[in-house]
Amino acid sequence: MQDTRLACGKRTEVPYLIEKMMVKVYSAEELCYSIMLDAYLLDESFASPELAYWLGDECGLKELEQLLIDLISHKGSVEEYSRTIMDYVGFYDAETIDSVIRVIRDNASLSIYEKNKSRADYYLMCGRVSMALAAYNELLESIPENEKKVRSAIWHNCGYAYAKMFRYVEAAKAFYCSYKTLPQDESLRQFLTALRLSKSNTEYYQYVSEHPEFYEMSQKVDRAIKQAEDSFEGTDEYRMIMAMKMVREEGTAYNAQTTPYYEQLDDVLDSLKSSYREMVTT
Question: What is the chain's Cα-based Rg?
Answer without folding.
Answer: 25
